[in-house]
Design a protein that fits this description.
- The structure is a single chain.
- This protein is α/β, with parallel strands linked by helices.
- The protein has one domain: Aminopeptidase, CATH 3.40.630.
- Bound molecules: zinc ion (ZN).
Length: 231
């Protein structure tokens, strides 16, 4: 789950705990020189959203992140890095450091949602806003900075739209929209990014899709197709 808000249901804010070191995994060589960073939300003592039968968001995020890494590697992406590759605490700062050092072509942050009732279902996507226009218009460096931000904003939205389209095949009529939202991981970092709230673990059907290995693979393939089409 990515951010606190009230829609038809009250969703629960993600907590992040400031311990641990980032896990970093690499895929086989292939497509593209620049990395893709997959961020599995939460981990370790930060459970994310949870439900009574001990299904934790952190576990679903990690399993999907590993499946997506595999799919992207199969698609020929040379460097696919994870902010964590195991169930452990990784702080926002550590995740940011990995992204800053890597300067990836894209960051995909994976979360799952929760609602009070079991009715809420579906996937939501977010992209960072990259504030622009405040800089000195006579400063060439500031103008170029603005252009880069605009490009990354366009890239983020384009990839998100392709992912949305692909996920519609897995979750028919469950598209809950694409919105702008700040991404703490990217504070002060300017790279294309998409946050995916992949489904509601409080909804039986959604949870089943995220829990089941085969349908999770289908979700990972759909996201990978969206990334391939989008960047
Ligand atoms: Zn979350």
């Amino acid at each position: 789950m990515y951010r606190f808000r009230i829609v038809a249901v009250l969703t629960i804010i993600c907590a992040v705990v400031l311990y641990g070191m980032p896990g970093l995994s690499r895929s086989q060589p292939g497509r593209g020189d620049r990395a893709i960073v997959i961020d599995a939300g939460h981990g370790g003592s930060d459970l994310g959203v949870r439900i009574a039968d001990k299904t934790y968001e952190k576990d679903l995020n990690l399993r999907l992140a590993l499946a997506l890494q595999k799919e992207l590697a199969t698609s020929g992406y040379r460097r696919v890095l994870l902010t964590r590759s195991a169930d452990k605490d990784v702080s926002v700062k550590e995740r940011s450091e990995l992204i800053r050092k890597t300067n990836p072509a894209l960051v995909i942050s994976l979360h799952a949602n929760a609602g009070f009732s079991g009715k809420a279902r579906g996937y939501e996507l977010y992209f960072p806003g990259f504030k622009t226009g405040k800089e000195d218009r006579n400063d060439p460096a500031a103008i170029i900075g603005d252009m880069t931000k605009n490009k990354h904003l366009n890239d983020s939205v384009r990839v998100a739209q392709h992912i949305q389209k692909q996920l519609a095949e897995i979750f028919p009529k469950e598209n809950r929209g694409l919105r702008e939202a700040p991404l703490p991981l990217l504070e002060g970092i300017n790279v294309p990014a998409v946050i995916i709230e992949i489904g509601f673990i409080t909804n039986k059907e959604n949870r089943k899709k995220l829990d089941d290995e085969k349908s999770r693979q289908g979700i990972a393939q759909a996201i990978a197709r969206g990334i391939r089409e989008g960047i």
